[in-house]
Amino acid sequence: MPKPFTPKVLTANALLEGDVIYRTAAAGWTRDLSQAEILTDEADAELQLIEASAEVATVVGAYLADVKVADGKAQPAHFREAFRAKGPSNYAHGKQEQF
Amino acid sequence: MYHYTDFDDAFLKERNAQFRAQVERRIDGALTEDEFKPLRLMNGLYLQLHAYMLRVAIPYGTLNSRQMHKLAEIADKWDKGYGHFTTRQNIQYNWPQLRDVPDMLDALAEVDMHAIQTSGNTIRNVTADHFAGAAGDEIADPRPVAELIRQWSTDHPEFQFLPRKFKVAVTGSPNDRAVTKAHDIGLRMVKRDGEAGYEVIVGGGLGRTPMIGKVLRDFLPQAELLPYLEAIVSVYNLLGRRDNKYKARIKITVHENGIEDIRVRVEERFALIRESFGGVDQQMLARIEADFATPAFKTASEAPYHNAYQHDPLFRSWADTNVAAHRADGYGIVSISLKAHGATPGDASSAQMRLMADLAKRYGHDELRISHEQNVILPHVHRGDLPSVYAALKAAGLGTANIGLISDIIACPGMDYCALATARSIPIAQEIALRFDELKLEHDVGPLKIKISGCINACGHHHVGHIGILGLDRAGVENYQITLGGDGTEDATIGERAGPGFSAEQIVPAIERIVLAYLDLRTEPAETFLQTYRRLGLAPFKAALYPEAQANAA
Ligand code: SF4
């Protein structure tokens, strides 16, 4: 049996700054994971991934990342995504400066 | 030190202009990421977890004050005011923006520096003993030959697409501080019947399949070095596996074909190409050697040193731990620790870089070195100046007296920065250092090298740490595996796995158990951790690490 599709967000790095970014429901990008669109349909997620990957002048390395959902907002499912969403642990650099 | 010629300048200018145009075409969308990626990697630009990362080569770890000042300026202008010195004697900037990178490269070019071949399947930055030209135990300064190798390998047309990356290390001392046996090629300067030459070691490497290098030639006359190196790399270029990334390093080529077979092929190739060098390389070497002339050492009073040594216990501790024997009378080699307890190993702020540059200029014959252990060296300081140097370092948070001790930890960037990581390294290093500082044990424990990698690629050299720590992802949780008894010196040894790994919360107490066990087990304070380990083996340390298993078996 194929594995059931678990909730995901579409994520990438911004071309110019390298920042971690997430796809929003308005088909734009946010730097804040909690603002990301939660994708629950596999076909839709794959389509969005293809579309986002075509934005070559904006994003790099788009992929789908697993998330947990709490109060309708995405939270990282894996510690790697938690670091991407927050920034490094040795300095308050990266996103933790902004959010 | 070596200064760029007009040829070098012109080459670099052209490369930087090319890259600038490539960045522009990437930004306006004319190049896709697939097209751009190999181009940026050729210029040392990675995309990591949170940002781009620019890796700048510091050839054989040697810098002058002007270069260090430029590194500080770049950190302030285009990064977050600091840089990270790596185990390959490079510096990495963790937060550059794509648009700024061409300007950063131009700034580097102003001081004869670049980021070429700090990535990709090429011959990477040649590393050397960080005490080169200063060490008391040295046969000869390895840097001229390292520079010769740098010139030969930079943009070498035959070796831009090797099966995999290729690392060369050189040492001029019998005490190997350059980990030559863990490199694709390791060169040790040796003398035979008064003639200078090299022991050529091949096929060492850490990573997924750690191997200690094997001797390919026990004595290679000095003048034959470049054609011989070229023969090795071209044999590897043809024979090395390109079907499987994990089997592509020369260590696997040597392992699969046998050292004998490789030797025959290399000697055949060598015989063929040797004449074509026609001695040009030796003329080049002679010119380079002039650039590495011994500084004019001074004769001065050592009274300030003796005075401070007698009256200031902090200075004494620092001098005992961080100053090594110099070959010139009255001089010492200063290791500046970038491992203040709780700090990120290898990081220096721009202010610290400037201070170190100024100290080098004022007291150190304008020389600085980066060590593979992620510290900064002032190779030539007169002992009479040591108290002034120490006072300035201390005021800048650079006076930690811990070189070679348990808190002088190598840690790769790990999952705080590196896109390949499976777990974090930095916080583990920070916690271990803080814990042993709190216990006030580290000087009692004595020489002990802890090395931490955030994934199997082993940039943190964990296999050759007396205590090695490897961070892994076990079912979505960070897990740390311990190896014991590794050694990166001339007696290079790969550490043994101690047993099941530990969680992030358990790893520091686990390290503490090992160290306390050592204190119990050593015959006398002079017996180092490594000596005790070699005498007793893994068993007693394993018992200390896994007390439950012990209790269950009883
Ligand atoms: S060892 Fe792994 S995590 Fe550490 S720097 Fe190397 S590739 Fe990155």
UniProtKB/TrEMBL annotation, chain A:
Top-level taxon: Bacteria
List the Pfam families.
DUF2849
In Swiss-Prot or TrEMBL terms, this protein is called DUF2849 domain-containing protein
Q: What is the lineage of its organism?
A: Bacteria, Pseudomonadati, Pseudomonadota, Alphaproteobacteria, Rhodobacterales
Automatic annotation (TrEMBL), chain B:
Cite the GO molecular-function annotations of the record.
Answer: 4 iron, 4 sulfur cluster binding; heme binding; metal ion binding; oxidoreductase activity
Q: Look up keyword Metal-binding and say if it applies.
A: yes
Keyword Zinc-finger tagged:
no
Q: Any idea which UniProt keywords this protein has?
A: 4Fe-4S, Heme, Iron, Iron-sulfur, Metal-binding, Oxidoreductase
Domain (Nitrite/Sulfite reductase ferredoxin-like) ranges? 52-111, 334-396
Q: Domain Nitrite/sulphite reductase 4Fe-4S: where?
A: 119-270, 408-544
- This one is known as Sulfite reductase (NADPH) hemoprotein beta-component
